[in-house]
Input
Amino acid sequence: MALEGNLQNMALSDLIQVFHTDAKTGILFLKGTHERGVIYVADGRLIDAVVVRGKERTIVATRDEAVLQMLTWEQADFIFRYEPTVRKRPIRIVHSGQCLILEGMRRHADPVRTLSYYNITPETILHLAALPRNVRSGVRLSIDQWRILSWIASGQNVHTICQATGLDVPAVTRLVVELMAIGLVEIAPCLSAATEPAYRDCTMIASAAPVYAHDVPYINKNSRSFSNVCGTMRQVCSEIDLLDVITRCINQL
Amino acid sequence: MTTHVLKIVITGGYATGKTQFVRSISDIEPVSTEQVLTATTERALKHETTVAMDFGSIAINDQITLHLFGTPGHERFDFMREHLLVGCLGYVVLVDSCRPAHLPQTQHLLFRSMELTEAPFVVAANRQDDPAALPLNYIRRRLGLPFNVPLVPCVATDRTTVRGVLLTLLKHIAARLTLHS
Output
């Protein structure tokens, strides 16, 4: 009992639209080539999400960022299962599904935006994020992520972390973004205004419904027309009018 | 006493519930031509498949009988569907509401059937009892169904909903007949 398919047959944006319009509740599992994702949906609203990588299930992104990452996937098998207990989970996704779809489209159109760390420079100072009370344990980090995290704890900038760890700037930036996506790290408050995600403004934008062909032309080229069929049936029902027969069927079925 | 036989065809893609549909409503033990599947990919969904047709019958009264013909779902048996559609009064196209991957195949099947016959048809969205099932408006949009073609929720294992689908088809046929006359 589940909705199953592949993102090639039904895009994640379509799934989110369907969840919203039909007020679905359940868990959506996505299995990509290297990563796996989970989205929790309660009464049509996306409430939590996570993307993990590898057998170790290293968390790559959570919440809104996880949904945005999954929106960039073009091929992944999915299963959506009805699960009423999802309603009891805390709401950790800030933006609506529509908003995330629009942001996903924007990132898709401009791949640079997929790398949301484009505004992290070597001078960027990082600090540990304040964890909410309802945070759950079980976050698994890679060795490099741990190394970066230990330096961030002492309030260093990216350049200093690079020197201390021996990693290059792109590698550190990538790891920092992963830690930010998990929700463990933030950019220091003095720079927060410059790094505010642009999609916060899109909540007022109208929903973009996918376009499909609504009108399908009927093709009436074959000689086996409906009137011919009716004619044949009238021969069969020689004494009684066909319509009368069908009406009796309707009444008695 | 004259007996009137009305031919109704139940068609649709692979593993959409056509055989079960006929089984649920037929008065007689359906005549089935099921064979064990050999392809591993196809066995993921079911172990047996219809290779020629399913046949069921509903006696409305002493004079009128509905004959139901279920077609095979595999594309390689398309010729059987073409044969079965000949002379039918109307047909039901079954679609699985939980497998969006099957929707393009169903759309192709709809176009092909409309080329073969002008007989009225309804689309029945099977497995609508699943809370995760796709909503009807989405299925209509993906299939590109005009609003004058009925799209009916259905559970192939539930006789009541199957009866509802057949009633919708008969009413649709009656409306078309009235229009023609």
In short: The helical segments of chain A are 12-21, 63-71, 97-109, 143-152, 158-165, 169-182, 226-236, 242-252. Confidence is low (pLDDT under 50) at residues 191-224 of chain A. Residues 187 and 196 of chain A are 10 Å apart (CA to CA). The two ends of chain A are 30 Å apart (CA to CA).
